[in-house]
Specification:
Blueprint lengths: L2 E5 L5 H19 L8 H13 L3 E8 L2 E9 L5 E3 L3 E2 L8 H15 L5 E5 L4 H9 L3 E6 L26 E6 L6
Parallel strand pairs: 4-6
Antiparallel strand pairs: 1-2, 2-3, 3-4, 3-5, 6-8, 7-8
Length: 180
């Protein structure tokens, strides 16, 4: 499969958002977990923000002129943050994710970034395997709680309160520039 990479643009938001939603939804359904991206519109909104933000590097993978995946890297901190990385479920397991990861790792190395971090859902064994092969190491485990406190036991928070982030899985950190 001949994969071509190019920088992501805001015009890619619809296609990349759809792929992101389908990839995460397919995985959640396989493992009977809640969806990380609640609706296609939510996924499009998230990727639209990332594609238009100057602090994020974005890369899009194409096969035969069709977008089949994307990856992002948050470059606003000393340690770069990777993700979300998504590949269309119809073409997964053909090395596209590896190509997308190599691209952001090269980008980080070219910027003398001392390390890369990413959060990974622990039940997705294919990506865990890929990240281990690329040199990532498990650093910490995270847990995500969902639900509502028992009625009457805690004061009700106002609607303006920030909701907790919905991260679940394994925190992985790439040691300082092993790819160099």
């Amino acid at each position: 499969m001949d994969v071509k990479l190019r920088p992501g643009t805001p015009e890619d938001a619809q296609t990349c958002g759809r792929i992101c939603y389908e990839a995460f939804s397919t995985l959640a359904q396989e493992h009977n977990f809640p969806k990380e991206m609640s609706t296609p519109e939510f996924a499009v909104g998230v990727l639209s923000m990332l594609l238009g933000h100057p602090g994020f590097y974005s890369v899009v993978a194409e096969v035969n002129g069709n977008v089949v995946g994307s990856n992002f890297m948050d470059e606003r901190s000393t340690i770069a943050g990777v993700g979300p990385i998504t590949v269309d479920p119809a073409v997964q397991n053909h090395g596209i994710g590896r190509v997308l990861m190599h691209d952001v790792m090269r980008r980080a190395a070219g910027r003398d970034t001392p390390g890369i971090r990413l959060l990974q859902t622990a039940h997705h064994h294919r990506s865990l395997s890929l990240y281990a092969k690329l040199g990532f190491q498990v650093r910490d485990l995270l847990a995500r709680y969902a639900g509502h406190p028992a009625e009457g036991r805690y004061p009700r928070l106002p609607d303006t309160t920030r909701r907790p982030r919905r991260y679940a899985g394994v925190y992985r950190c790439l040691p300082a520039r092993p790819w160099a």
